[in-house]
Amino acid sequence: MARLIDSGPGCPTPTPLRAATAAEARGLAYDDEVKEKTDHLYPLVNDFITPMEWPAVAPLVAAINDLKAEKNAVILAHNYMTPDIFRLVGDFRGDSLQLAREAANVDADVIVQAGVHFMAETSKILAPSKTVLISSLEAGCSLASSITGPDVRLIKERYPDYPVVTYVNTTADVKAECHITCTSSNAAQVVEAVAKEWNTDTVILVPDQYLAKNVAAQTNIRIITWPGACEVHELFSADDVDALREAHPGVVILAHPECPPDVLESADFAGSTAALANYVKDESPAKVVLLTECSMSDNVASENPGVDFVRPCNLCPHMKQITLENILECLQEMKHEVTIDEDVRVQAKAAIDAMLALPKMANPLAFETGLKPMDIEVISPN
Ligand code: SF4
Questions:
Q1: Listed residue (91, 95, 34, 39) closest to 60, CA to CA
Q2: CA geometry: angle at 303 spanning 142 and 134, to 5°?
Q3: Which of 7, 9, 181, 267 is the most exposed place for a label (fewest CB within 10 A)?
Q4: DSSP character for 337?
Q5: Selection from 315, 307, 314 nearest residue 252 by Cα
Q6: How far, in Å, from the CA of 38 to the mean position of ligand 1?
Q7: Residue 100 — pLDDT band, cuts 50, 70, 90?
Q8: Which atom of ligand 1 is nearest to the CA of 293?
């Protein structure tokens, strides 16, 4: 059973308390200059930060935004960032693919990745001439760390006739060993395209076993996977869906495809973070629950004030390593630069380019819900 908590408006991340100490330590005050620079931003986060707390947060926001201008830097903010980062200092917001595309195209010298390490690597792969920084070296990922480049080499030795697709939530080393990448928006499209190209009925999709099982239910291609999982989404279960329906009659339940297949079987709609956000915007359900990371609900809620959100609270401990304080420090000291061996970068880019060369979809693909979970082969790492 997932650690489901109806947390009310916003998760209990004590951002303002931390921010107060951090601003004070840096001699930053909520003075007239800071007020002028930031008070128009407060309505963007007023359901997350109280008026009493705002004077502690505003000086950090002003200092970060000043440094961005001074250093020609941009911040790429993932959907799972807390609203203070997502709404107040993020220049581009979205899922990992949307952010990687911005990294490649943006006219900036410095990119600060407000996300986890594999995302910063993806930015560096696509934007090698830019300085890419990440504000915490603790911002890892259970999926990315479940598989290594040597693991993929062994998979290719064991299954030489099948193409290997990697979810983008992997390190550059892993991408460099795979034939093509995919995201949760286009996984089924990529699997079918690569099967056609290789003239095979079998594709290896790593490392998320749940994403692979959910894709397998959507396509006739046989899928083999790896025993990786996202530690946030694997906690949700079909029992949670039943409990939510009982506690909140009429609630519309949306699930991310990193959740186990029985969750997608019971949900009303499933798709990537972009697909979930689009669904809420387009359908405006009266009451909704997003079975994904906590901050996603906070960020989608602030853009859909007419929708009542029930908030299941599964925080990603890695995403939550990124704070306003360490973003400020990272920009001040230009620290934690992400570097990648050039051979690895070029090979990893080829896998991403193979995905980007596929026809662009108008909208992220939704996963059909209500389908019976399928048993698929999971590769033993030993
Ligand atoms: S939410 Fe899951 S996939 Fe995303 S960074 Fe956290 S552990 Fe990794």
A1: 34
A2: 35
A3: 9
A4: B
A5: 307
A6: 31
A7: confident
A8: 1
What is the CA 337 to chain-centroid distance, rounded?
A: 20
Per-residue pLDDT tens over the stretch 279-324? 999 999 999 999 999 889 989 998 898 999 998 768 999 999 999 9
Determine the 3-state secondary structure of 351 from DSSP: helix
Q: What is the DSSP letter of 4?
A: -
Ligand 1: atom nearest CA of 292 is 1
Backbone angles phi, psi at 163, to 5 degrees: -70, 150
Distances (CA, A) of 183 to 74, 84, 356: 23, 26, 11
Cα–Cα distance measured from residue 185 to residue 192, given in angstroms and rounded to the nearest whole number: 14
With the most atoms of ligand 1 within 8 angstroms of its CB, the residue from 79, 116, 182 to mutate is 116
DSSP state of 325: H
Average pLDDT over every residue of 187-195: 96
**Residue owning the nearest CA to atom 8 of ligand 1:** 141
Q: Is 230 in the pocket of ligand 1 (CB under 6 A)?
A: yes
H or E segment and range at residue 59: helix 54-71
Task: Cite the beta strand spans of the chain per DSSP E.
Answer: 73-78, 92-94, 110-114, 131-134, 164-167, 180-182, 202-206, 222-225, 252-255, 269-271, 287-291, 308-310, 366-367, 377-378
Cite the beta strand spans of 126-201 per DSSP E: 131-134, 164-167, 180-182
For the chain, give percent helix, strand, coil, nearest 5.
45, 15, 40
